[in-house]
């Protein structure tokens, strides 16, 4: 047998070995509708990894048409349910960029906001257990910005009302974050930084539950900085807006100025 014959036989053997059972693709020959149906069925059963694979195969084989576009949205949701926020956000952004006028692009915005919202969920509920000065509120801010874009661009969207409610939650949470950072600085004697963060809470997140404490922190910080006029101005605003505030009285046995009772 010649060397050339041996080489041909060897190549045929290698080709046969490459088609191992592990590489068998059950979806070979499936049309777009079947791939989509199988992916949706996997989603219903909680098989998000398999669903993602099916959706990605659908888009790769049939990149044009309604099934491919819907698969992109479904992939984002599957990543979200699989607790892969980075991939979910990337999929949402991709859909928004590719299909800015799609009838369901409002859902892409909503899902993007939801992913970031749940990244920072519990911000208010965890205040007692965590120093918020160590927490990055970036996800909350990005969620707020996305929900705002949704309600501004699609005020009649079926997701707009829920987005508005989440925005209110986020505004309150972000206001509390600023106040907790201000309190953190105040306790460590960084009075100027405390005053700046309290001011930020008042200017950026007005009329939120954090406003009362932000004003109180201002009075303390200005007092420590030797700025009695600014201290008294902050005190007057606190008294005018929160006449029943717990910060306005230290109780009958207290002999300290009220701005030093916190």
Biggest sheet descriptor: none
Average pLDDT works out at 84
- Cα(first) to Cα(last) distance is 97 Å
From the helix content, strand content and strand pairing, which structural class follows? mainly alpha
Computed CA radius of gyration, to the nearest angstrom: 29 Å
Order of helices and strands: HHHHHHHHHHH
| Poorly predicted segments | 122-128, 250-254, 257-262
Helix content: 55-70%
Q: How many E-type strands? A: 0
Specify the overall morphology. Answer: elongated
By DSSP (H or I, 4+ residues per run), the number of helices equals: 11
Range of strand content:
under 5%
Features:
262 residues
List the helices and strands and how they pair.
Layout: H1 3-18, H2 32-44, H3 48-61, H4 66-81, H5 85-98, H6 105-119, H7 138-153, H8 160-187, H9 191-204, H10 211-224, H11 228-241
Helix pairs in contact: 2-3, 2-4, 3-4, 4-5, 4-6, 5-6, 6-7, 7-8, 8-9, 8-10, 9-10, 10-11
């Amino acid at each position: 047998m010649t060397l050339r014959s041996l080489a041909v036989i060897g190549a045929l053997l290698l080709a046969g070995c490459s088609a191992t059972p592990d590489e068998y693709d059950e979806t070979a020959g499936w049309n777009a509708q079947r791939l989509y149906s199988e992916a949706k069925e996997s989603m219903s059963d909680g098989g998000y990894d398999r669903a993602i694979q099916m959706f990605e195969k659908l888009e790769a084989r049939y990149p044009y048409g309604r099934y491919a576009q819907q698969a992109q949205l479904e992939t984002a949701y599957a990543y979200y349910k699989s607790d892969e926020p980075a991939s979910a956000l990337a999929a949402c952004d991709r859909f928004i960029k590719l299909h800015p006028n799609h009838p369901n692009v409002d859902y892409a915005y909503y899902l993007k906001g939801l992913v970031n919202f749940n990244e920072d969920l519990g911000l208010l509920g965890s205040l007692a257990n965590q120093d918020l000065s160590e927490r990055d509120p970036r996800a909350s801010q990005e969620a707020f910005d996305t929900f705002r874009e949704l309600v501004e661009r699609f005020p009649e969207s079926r997701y707009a009302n829920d987005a508005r409610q989440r925005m209110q939650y986020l505004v309150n949470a972000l206001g509390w974050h600023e106040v907790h950072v201000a309190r953190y600085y105040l306790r460590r004697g960084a009075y100027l930084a405390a005053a700046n963060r309290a001011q930020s809470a008042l200017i950026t997140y007005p009329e939120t539950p954090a406003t009362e404490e932000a004003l109180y922190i201002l009075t303390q910080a200005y007092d420590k900085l030797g700025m009695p006029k600014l201290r008294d101005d902050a005190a007057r605003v606190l008294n005018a807006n929160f006449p029943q505030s717990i910060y306005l009285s230290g109780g009958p046995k207290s002999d300290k100025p009220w701005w030093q009772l916190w």
